[in-house]
Amino acid sequence: MHSFRQSLGILLAVALIAACPAPVAANEGNASSPVDFTLALGTPQRDAAERSLAALAEHAMGNDDSRSLGRIFSMDSPGAIRDAAIGYGFEIYLIDAASLLAGNSIDKSLRRTGVWRFLVLIGDRPVGLATVARVRGQWKTVQMGGAGLAADISRAVSDYLRDPSAPRLRFIRSEQGLADFIEVIARGEPAYLPLLSAQELAFSSRPDSAAGASPVAATKREALSEHRIVDALRASIRRGMSDPRFSH
């Protein structure tokens, strides 16, 4: 059995891995799983994130590992980890490349993963993400990091989380297309907020895009209809399919 120190050392090492963990079976995300962007209070997913954050802070501040926190979270000083807390969470939905390329819509091509991410906050500022997955029947934090993505998500969804009409929001990722979106379902057809990884893709799909213009020049993130992005997304997926990581 690993000691407490060994277990936290493993967590620190895993936190430095940039890639997402492999998805678990979709039915593992069904039991006791809230939906969409939520605090997920009282759930095993949130409990796992909170336990790991507390243990990481205790381990790092009690040893010589505090400097490594700067490679995991966006913090002004290592000591700020004492004030870190878990914010809202969301399940990762993946776009099934084969389904989308076969002509299905983005929404109809979404697949649950059972993997959750929670914002790590210092005050009201997102400094990273805790990724939680079910491992051998138990919910565990398998990755910490992603400060840039955490900040990007927070900026993109902040207005929608305050919207009294309470639109449904889902985090969706195209692994082959190397693009993340927030799906917004309010009235009618879904719309898609491109996160920074998808900004260039979304910008290049616009018929009036000017050569040399910046895809992040706009001050407000626009939710785009599917027809605005789906052709560029499919083209990006086809390019990604030639990558050996996605060819099996």
Strand order of the largest sheet: 4-3-2-1-5-6-7-8
Number of domains: 1
Q: Tell me the series of helices and strands, N- to C-terminal.
A: HHEHEEEHEEEHEH
Care to count the β-strands? 8
Q: Which quaternary structure do these chains form? A: single chain
Q: Characteristics of this structure?
A:
globular; 248 residues; disordered N terminus; alpha+beta; 30% helix; single chain; 6 helices
Provide a descriptive summary of the structure in words.
- Helix 1 packs across helix 2 (44-61).
- By secondary structure, the chain is of the alpha+beta class.
- A hairpin with a 4-residue loop joins strand 5 and strand 6.
- The longest helix has 18 residues, at 44-61.
- It has an eight-stranded mixed β-sheet.
- The protein has one domain (4-246).
- It has helices at residues 4-15, 44-61, 97-101, 147-161, 196-204, 226-241; strands at residues 84-95, 110-122, 125-135, 138-145, 168-174, 179-185, 191-194, 224-225.
- Residues 1-34 and 209-219 have low confidence and may be disordered.
